[in-house]
């Protein structure tokens, strides 16, 4: 299985600290070494860094750890291949355009027997169950809505689509269009919201701590969502199987069908 | 105006040498400092690096110059904004999926009064004439062909679409799906094909030379396509206004309507 990391905040924030711990799990403190990727939304634009080298040794991962790209929505993924060979085309996150917005998706789990994508608008390039699921989501949304619907309407539609896909296996996933970030927990996903009063956080995977009170303003709010908690001294909340959350401005909102 | 750089070869080749010279033009030896980007195809997959910092000073450009990513199709772009603000969403190259393939596009020039994109399948995210033109290309191809056609058929269709768009202004562009690279010259584009016997090449923009005979096999063949020649001691061929070439395995084929 793979691991997921997401960030959603009300101010552009860099992910250097969290990604340092997360990247260790791609070949050093854990065995997810079949490539990795990270997507940063900046305004309407999106940067996607992909590598099929383990994140613990990838030169691109090193750059990402040290280059503070500030973003309000970030999704990262380290891969332990279950379906599909190790190749760039099979490396998460995946990106497509829908309604004139970039959408980013990453998945942890295993889906079997998914219905084929009609391919009217979207087709997988690689051969993972994950990209297949992403195309199913986009295809169904595109067929239900010619234009971007208001968020409550989108949330309801997405909840139904996600529930449908989750019936085919394990579907922990993150999805973002740069305004919001949806996170679905099938088996394992944790999150926390960092806000004032900020404190010192200590990574679990590396001997590194950061004092967020020195780096933040009192109104900042940032949610971090991850497969396994990244820090030892903060109160991570475990999401429940079947739970879908929509994060916006660092705040989680439950979404139900 | 901007500058374009493309590479197409019969073996995966890195572009470190050419990109070193090209990146200097983004703020050092020339004034194209409104961002830059580069896309590398590897198999069916594609990596796209984007930055709105000038390529001469961007940490990501430094990585790309020193990390030898081997690819058979590469497109790079340094931007001097004419339409659309400097932002990530307006940074070339642009990427979309068509027929289960990633397509990459970059443009140098200025287009005015383009017809709107129907948006049935593709919509621009940013507000450049370039991404608009890319969406027009994809939309028209998608409407003509439900599946990827053979290359000769695709070439004819593309030649017609490109001629249509070129009527709206200056349309130097490069387009690739990872198998081939199309280059269209409106005002300025040069290329050369490096093949045996390989020799020493000397950059124009930086004091750097490389002996390709030490780095290549006798069967290697690589075409480099660029706005302004990159080296001082090689025979670059200037493309003609209105000329469209399809590069495959390092060989250019003229395409006519």
TrEMBL record, chains A, B:
CDD domains in the cross-refs: YafJ
Alphabetical list of Pfam families matching this protein: GATase_4
Keywords: Glutamine amidotransferase, Transferase
Glutamine amidotransferase type-2 domain sequence ranges: 2-250
Molecular function GO labels: transferase activity
SUPFAM superfamilies in the cross-refs: N-terminal nucleophile aminohydrolases (Ntn hydrolases)
Claim: Transport is one of the keywords in the record: no
Protein known as: Glutamine amidotransferase
Species: Fluviicoccus keumensis
């Amino acid at each position: 299985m793979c691991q997921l990391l997401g960030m959603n905040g009300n101010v552009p924030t860099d992910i250097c600290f969290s990604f340092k711990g997360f990247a260790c799990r791609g070949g050093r403190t854990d065995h997810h070494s079949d490539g990795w990727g990270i997507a940063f939304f900046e305004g309407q634009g999106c940067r996607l860094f992909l590598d099929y080298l383990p994140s613990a040794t990838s030169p691109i991962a090193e750059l990402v750890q040290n280059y503070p790209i500030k973003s309000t929505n970030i999704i990262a993924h380290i891969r332990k291949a279950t379906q599909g060979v190790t190749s760039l085309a099979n490396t998460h996150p995946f990106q497509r355009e829908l309604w004139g917005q970039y959408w980013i998706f990453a998945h942890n789990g295993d889906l079997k027997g998914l219905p084929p994508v009609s391919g009217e608008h979207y087709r997988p390039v690689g051969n993972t169950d994950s990209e297949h699921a992403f195309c199913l989501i986009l295809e169904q949304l595109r067929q239900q809505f010619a234009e971007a619907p208001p968020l409550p309407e989108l949330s309801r539609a997405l909840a139904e689509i996600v529930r449908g896909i989750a019936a085919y296996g394990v579907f922990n996933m993150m999805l973002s269009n740069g305004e919001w970030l949806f996170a679905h927990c099938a088996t394992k996903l944790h999150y926390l919201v960092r806000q004032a009063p900020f404190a010192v956080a200590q990574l679990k995977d590396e001997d590194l701590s950061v004092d967020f009170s020195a780096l933040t303003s009192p109104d900042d709010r940032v949610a971090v969502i991850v497969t396994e908690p990244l820090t030892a001294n903060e109160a991570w909340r475990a999401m429940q199987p079947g739970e879908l959350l929509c994060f916006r401005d660092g705040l989680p909102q439950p979404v139900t069908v």
